[in-house]
Design a protein that fits this description.
The chain is an alpha/beta fold and about 325 residues long. Helices cover about 45% and strands about 15% of the residues. The protein has two domains: about 240 residues, Aspartate Aminotransferase, domain 2 (3-Layer(aba) Sandwich); about 90 residues, Aspartate Aminotransferase, domain 1 (Alpha-Beta Complex), CATH 3.90.1150. The chain contains 14 helices and eleven strands. It binds pyridoxal-5'-phosphate.
Length: about 325
């Protein structure tokens, strides 16, 4: 949920028409966002999903292929936008922990001299990786994967919906991560607490193409400075505090692992996401009971639950959450 400071900034924001590039608050945000990602330019999009869809459209043509992790958000949770809207096929690669190895990228590239095959145009990486537990790519692994992709003539899109969680976990600037991608999407919503909004960043040419795609998709928004105002506060005040969410997630995961009937792989708890299994109860029933007691999470599999720590959740809340889980499982 947005902070009071964000809400005030949204009321006060100077506005113009961003479809004409005339919204001063949005322009200021785009400048800051591009700089934080180390890219030449940026554009504001309504969601991470649209940012990723534009990432597909900018980096691959109709009839071509984009390589993605089999558990990626782009492949599983974006309503097949790559195929349905861009005519781009996703080639899935199964990875250990969401981290694609250079040899896997090389092996996934199609032979160029055989017209039976689609043309491999791009690869996408997800950092942090949601379905793999919010894991962070080691920088060297990202560097090596990116180098392998570029050597194969692929463009690299980074789904950095939670790139700032990765940056805080690694103790680096987000630009050091984004440096290994040609284009990057990151979310102002989610951990950065904005009500709405994501940013797509890349070269000037990428953003020219992205802005046309955004218009085509209906994502050109007029006085979007109302939202950008919250984004500026997010980038100034909400990044460093993510460390608190990570510490809370760790305490939560360690506490859950001690509860009978719960299994939680602590090695995957590296940022603000906590995935765990409730062994003797359907996840949906567990979740329903938690909701009744005021604890909001989500069932992501038959026995799997995801909890997220974020702005507004305190260490006391974590202790109450653990008590509620214990109560539900021992009822
Ligand atoms: C890794 C990842 N990418 C993209 C998205 C899409 O973001 P949005 O919900 O803003 O469309 C999400 C949403 O959870 C995500 O986890």
């Amino acid at each position: 949920m947005p902070s009071q400071e964000m809400r005030h900034a949204m009321i006060e924001a100077p506005l113009g028409d961003d479809v004409f590039g005339d919204d001063p608050t949005t322009n200021r945000l785009l400048e800051v966002a591009a700089r934080r990602m180390g890219k030449a330019a940026a554009t504001f999009v309504p969601s991470g999903t649209m940012g990723n869809l534009i990432g597909v459209a900018v980096n691959a043509q109709r009839g071509q292929e984009m390589i993605a992790d089999a558990d990626s958000h782009i492949f599983n949770s974006e309503a097949a936008g790559a195929a349905a809207v861009c005519g781009v096929q996703i080639r899935q690669v199964s990875t250990k922990g969401g981290v694609m190895r250079p040899d896997q990228i090389v092996a996934a590239v199609r032979p160029r001299d055989d017209p039976h095959h689609p043309i491999s145009a791009a690869v996408t990486f997800e950092d942090t990786h949601n379905r793999h537990g919010g894991i962070v790519w080691p920088l060297e692994a990202l560097r090596d994967a990116s180098r392998a992709a570029h050597e194969q003539g692929l463009r690299v899109h980074l789904d950095g919906a939670r790139i700032f969680n990765a940056a805080v976990a690694l103790g680096v600037e987000a630009s050091e991560i984004a440096a290994y991608a040609d284009t990057v999407t990151f979310c102002l919503s989610k951990g950065l607490a904005c009500p709405i909004g994501s940013i797509f960043c890349g070269s000037e040419a990428d953003i020219e193409s992205a802005t046309r795609w955004r218009k085509r998709l209906g994502g050109g928004m007029r006085q979007v400075g109302v939202l950008a105002a919250a984004g500026l506060i997010a980038l100034d005040h909400m990044v460093d505090r993510l460390a608190e969410d990570h510490a809370n997630a760790r305490t939560l995961a360690e506490g859950l692992a001690e509860i009978r009937g719960v299994s939680c792989d602590l090695s995957r708890v590296q940022t603000n996401l906590v995935y765990f299994d409730v062994e003797n109860m359907p996840a949906a029933a567990f979740d329903d009971e938690c909701v009744k007691r005021g604890l909001l999470g989500g069932a992501t599999g038959a026995h799997t639950i995801r909890f997220v720590t974020h702005y507004g959740i305190t260490s006391e809340d974590v202790q109450s959450a653990l008590q509620i889980c214990d109560g539900v499982l021992s009822a």
